[in-house]
Write a structure and sequence with these properties.
single chain, alpha+beta, Alpha-Beta Plaits
């Protein structure tokens, strides 16, 4: 499954987030695949596309970062996958 993860930097604290990332990497659990990310520097948010077997697979990763970021996680699918499931609409 694909997930769009929206991270909001607590207190706009990109310095501590960057330091942890440089020291420890993404700290992804087994079975979770990082695809890409984009930063919104104005609102201090990061949008990450992740792949995992289930939403619960992201819980360990969120726990490693939730002291520095708030998370919104949305299950998504590609446009092609969406339209294949809805022929004739």
């Amino acid at each position: 499954m694909l997930f769009m993860v929206i991270e909001k930097f607590k207190d706009g604290d990109e310095k501590r987030i960057g330091e942890r990332f440089r020291q420890q990497g993404r700290m992804m659990p087994a079975g979770v695949i990082y695809h890409a990310s984009w930063i919104d520097p104005v609102a201090m948010r990061c949008f990450q596309l992740m792949e995992a077997p289930a939403r619960a697979s992201l819980d360990a990763w969120v726990a490693r970062w939730n002291d520095l970021m708030d998370f919104e996680i949305v299950a998504v699918e590609t446009s092609a996958e969406f339209w294949v499931k809805r022929p004739g609409r």
